[in-house]
Amino acid sequence: MSGIAINFRERLAEKGLKVCHQHMSKILRNPFYCGMMAHNMLEGKVVEGNQEQLVSKEVFLKVNGLLKENPQGYRIKVKTRKSH
C-alpha cells in the first residue's frame, strides 16, 4: 500500500474511523474528502465545500492522476504454455 494511503488511514483512525484497504481507492477518488463537493445538481461543477479536508487537494490530484494511469488497480498476467 502506498504511503499516501497509509497516512490517510492513520488520520482516519485518529478520528475513530477504521477503513479497510479495499475502500481506499473509492475514498481517494471522491472530491468530498479534499474539501470539495460535486453533485448532479451542480451540472458537472466541483465547488468548495465547508467540510474538513481529510486529504490535501495536491494529494487528491496526485492519487487520481495515478489511478487514471492504471484504472484497474492491478493487472493479471496470464501464463500460456508453449506447444512444442
The average pLDDT score comes to: 77
Q: How many helix segments?
A: 3
**Terminal residue distance:** 41 Å
* Portion in helices: 25-40%
Q: Any idea what the radius of gyration is?
A: 17 Å
- Quaternary state reads single chain
Reading the helices and strands in chain order gives HHEEH
The shape is: extended
Major sheet: size, sense and barrel closure?
2 strands, antiparallel
Query: What is the total tally of β strands?
Result: 2
Residue fraction in strands: 5-15%
Unreliable segments of 5+ consecutive residues: none
- Widest sheet: strand ordering: 1-2
Class derived from helix and strand content: mainly alpha
